[in-house]
Write a structure and sequence with these properties.
The protein is mostly helical. It is built from four helices and no strands. The chain starts with a helix and ends with a helix.
Length: 68
C-alpha cells in the first residue's frame, strides 16, 4: 500500500505537525498529537478495511479451486 505514507504525511500536515531540525526543540500542538495518534491507529485500520472490502469481491473460478 504505497499510498499509506502519503496519507500519513497529509494527516500530519493537516494536524499542524512541525518538524524539528538538528539541535532544535519543537513543541507539538494538540492537533499534531491527535494527527500522530490517528495516523498510527485509525488510518491503517481504514486502509486495511478498504483492502479487505476490495479483496472480498474477488472470486476464483471453479476450475482453479477444484482439486486435481
Amino acid at each position: 500500500m504505497a499510498a499509506g505514507p502519503y496519507l500519513y504525511s497529509a494527516a500530519l500536515a493537516l494536524g499542524g505537525y512541525a518538524a524539528a531540525r538538528a539541535g532544535e526543540d519543537v513543541t507539538q500542538t494538540g492537533g499534531a498529537h491527535t494527527a500522530i495518534l490517528l495516523g498510527l491507529t485509525l488510518l491503517p485500520a481504514l486502509l486495511m478495511a478498504a483492502a479487505l472490502a476490495v479483496r472480498s469481491r474477488y472470486r476464483l473460478d471453479a476450475r482453479f479451486t477444484a482439486p486435481r
